[in-house]
Amino acid sequence: MDTVTTLPRAELLRRAAELGPLLRNNAQASEEQRRLSIETLEALGGSGLLRMRVPRSYGGYESDMRTVAEVLAELARGDGSAAWTASVWLISSWMVGLFPDSVRAEVFADPDVRISGILSPTAMATSVDGGYRVNGKWSFNTGCLQSDWNVNAAVRPTPDGQFEPVMVLVPMSELQVIDDWHTTGMRGSGSVSTVADNVFVPEDRVLPMGPVIGGAHPLQQDPSAPMWRAPFMPIACMTVGAVAYGLAQAARDAFLTRLPGRKITYTDYDEQSAAPLTHLQVAGATLRVDEAGFHILRTADRIDAKAATGEPWTIEERVQARLDLGAACLRAKEAVDLLAGASGGSSLQLDVPIQRIERDIKALNLHAIMHPDTNFELYGRVACGLAPNTQYL
What we know:
The protein is 49% helix and 14% strand. By secondary structure, it is α+β, with helices and mostly antiparallel strands.
């Protein structure tokens, strides 16, 4: 379908591809610093790619989902941590686009603003005069160390004694940081924990989560804007899933780049590229890369098509998006594992990209919303006539 963006998809993809060498060169530095290197950070900002989910009225592009997915996959071919962090910033910018005019004007005064966010409601918002006092902790807060704002989930009491999930938008300067991101995968994403200790959040910076999950956005910037005509979860799933797809492509790139001149030790093959086993491995990995892309891009196209028509989402379509996410993650991991296993002992060196790619794709497959088994079970329940066992659809 046609691209819906103020910049053509081809131009945004060109910018993402141009960043590839820089991202690859800085990936190890980002791992060592446990956050994106300054050069990577500045390059992402300078590329304009972080504007893809910013409202047009504030200098953004309002790019369609297919564009976002392809750009993030291209970034992941350079560095998974950089692409993952960018994906979180893009999702969070979309979320802030649902807040009232006064909030959007403040946050998007700089269209290259970086906003991180967490969807798990692990904080309490207590009503006070003019807003809420928020207390709680959010773990795995990707990119927050290099962000200006944090849009995180909390719960607030309701008159009937229940609790309602909400999104609270807080300047990063008002949150405490716990430096606890010591991992083997996605090390450069800086996914530390943040703490709100009696932080005051004005009323207009609190957004009910129910309509966001459901796809009914009464405060959206422009009711006619296709970018907000979709439920949150399919958008989020395809945004982060694109990183897995890109990592699978990165593994194939890395393997084929190292292949010329390599031998298979303790065999008669002076050239690994001459071995039938290698041919089978490359073909099998390529098939899985393509399958990962199929699942991501199928749902991305569905998001764009339904946004164009305003057609509502069925439960079956929502769980299909979760199924596609799980399938993309599984196939991407299979592709990476196959090529990493064919890369020999020398690939364990830290300056060989495929070992980092393998650790990153494993991390993504362990993510609670991306785990293949979780997504497959959800789809199977609904296909067998049972109700979903989650509200995250």
